[in-house]
Amino acid sequence: MADRQKISIGQIDYANAWPIFHGLRLDGDYMESVARVPSELNRMLAAGELQVSAMSSYAYAVNSDKLLLLPGLSVGSVGRVNSLFFFSKKPVDTDPPERIALTSTSATTVNLLKILMESYYGLHPEYISMEPSLDRMLEQADGALLIGDPAIHAFWTRKDLHCIDLGELWHRFTGRGMTYAVVAVRRDAAEAWPDAIGYIHRALLDNMAGNVSNLDPVVARACREHGGEESFWRSYFGGLQYDLNPRLLEGLELYCRYAKELGLLERDTELAFFRKDKNL
Ligand SMILES: C=C(O[C@@H]1C=C(C(=O)O)C=C[C@H]1O)C(=O)O
Hints:
- The chain is an alpha/beta fold.
- It folds into two domains: 154 residues, D-Maltodextrin-Binding Protein, domain 2; 91 residues, 3-Layer(aba) Sandwich (D-Maltodextrin-Binding Protein, domain 2), CATH 3.40.190.
- The protein contains twelve helices and ten strands.
- The strands form two sheets. It has a five-stranded mixed sheet. It has a five-stranded mixed sheet with strand order 7-6-8-5-9, sandwiched between helices.
- Helix 4 links the parallel strand 6 and strand 7.
- 44% of the residues are buried.
- The site of ligand ISJ has 17 residues, from helix 4 and strand 10.
């Protein structure tokens, strides 16, 4: 990497990540940020098109030999999430789905659903990956997984469908929290520019702490851009956990163990963290 390469920072292009990124001012001569859906960020970070990014925790696990977690940053929950939904025409308990359409934007929740189908329900449906369009997904499958903003809009409008909150079901199954997204840095970037990465890490932590302690600006932005009640957005953001705390880490470790057991991950995952003074 050249000395003066711009550091590119990936942001999740969904409301769930606004408490981390809203109001962040890092762009300039040496840094730029881009907002994409999680699967695209996962690909870009692995390809070296980004140096630091929010990403699916599953994709971190797949590439953990090339990445380090930025401590204290996450999108997680202990229980309900309100934006990770499995929609089905019939109840799963009485009418098991034979074919499930998975949003192509997700990595963590796609595998969370597979874990829950297999280990909680004892089901082995066929899976297909599709763009997040619920109508089209349900033309081709008995159930559909959506994440992020499309999941929230579908939850508001499709009261005719059965709906399972994946964070709630995971909590019922395991008693644990779960980390859906993390923020990671490429190990080569952490080695090349420890000070710059440390600066970005600090800026993200401070920005997140400010937004979490005063949700008004992100709630106002969500009402403006997505509609819906202020009370919905306040409890949505209030219900998510952004600080990668021990309950979220414990849940992520258990998720990785299930994923490995079921052949969804090739290896055991050891979570490794960026530390400014000793980053590798
Ligand atoms: C809470 C959410 O968490 C997320 C789920 C992800 C995934 O399934 O890969 C990735 C990032 C987050 O967007 C959400 O999408 O609503």
